[in-house]
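Limitations

Structures in this collection are predictions, not experimental determinations, and the ligand pose is part of the prediction. Treat each record accordingly. The example that follows, with KG4 as the small molecule, is included so readers can see exactly what is and is not provided: the inputs are given verbatim, and the output is the predicted complex.
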Amino acid sequence: MQNFRVLGIETSCDETGVAIYDREKGLLAERLYSQIDEHAKYGGVVPELASRDHIRKLIPLIRELGDAHKIDGVAYTSGPGLAGALLAGASVARGLAYGWGVPALGVHHMEGHLLAPLLAGEQVEFPFIALLVSGGHTQLVDVEALGKYRLLGESVDDAVGEAFDKTAKLLGLSYPGGPEVAKLATQGNGDRFGFPRPMVNRPGLDFSFSGLKTFVRTLVEKQRDSNGELNKQLKADIAQGFEAAVVDTLTIKCKRALKETGRKALVVAGGVSANRSLRASLQSMDAHVQFPPMAYCTDNGAMIAHVGAYRLAAGQHDQAEFMARPRWPLTELTPPSG
Ligand code: KG4
Ligand code: ZN
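Predicted complex:
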């Protein structure tokens, strides 16, 4: 294996992540700056503020990685994500690569997530099914090899992380809502509400989560007291009912995907893969199930440096013309040698 040391830069949304990954030694250094406090007061990510904050933080964070590393290439997230935020990372990455005389490569954010279980030093054997669950994506993908992806199903409306965030907002919880809903759910019992399991009785592997969000909205409106408040136990019960419906739905579709394809292994990645109920439910399936380490479920620079190292070491690098692809289907990727 040819050694290769890569600086990775992630700026697709509201986390500024930088890291250095060495193919022989693994992760050498990393920094992560979350803009959450900046966006929380608006209840969601404000794209213009995100771009400005990435520009402000990138160079100081890269400096903090230390200057003792000889870098062989620079990888950055070139999509999917917020256009301005992507351009901030792409510009810095390509400027540094040019200045250092090394190649730059724009990588796919979801491929970064997909291979994040390898960051813990775990082996991941191809082929497998990937369940990608983040704030922007809910996808089941058949992964034959690195860069060989076939989309099996996806959400026809809200992504699952987005549904968590919207449910949190309806319950008066702070942004990002996923971890807040999950925390509250541990104290609740949502059985009495009869939350639906969307699309499980239809054939196919697509998902729909906007109905669950509407179910929560209707419940919240019905259950408010005369002061317009929801009591704490009721909120916990709704959170638990919602989470259980999401977890059941995802589990049913994962089982179906494994059965239909005959694959024996499942890799789960993206921000929602940090959810403990989801982990427990998927782990009880009759399959080999792998997750990223908790710290690498949500956005980070390490996963970008890591996937960049594979592809740059294989000789892949950017041509001069493009830098950011806000919309980018994972299935357009090809193996690094292709
Ligand atoms: O992958 P990620 O960091 O960013 C995107 O690429 O979108 O995922 C962020 C999403 C948010 O919607 C957040 O609420 C959700 O992941 N999330 C969770 C948990 N931790 C993060 N959802 C449910 N349970 C969690 N523990
Ligand atoms: Zn992500």
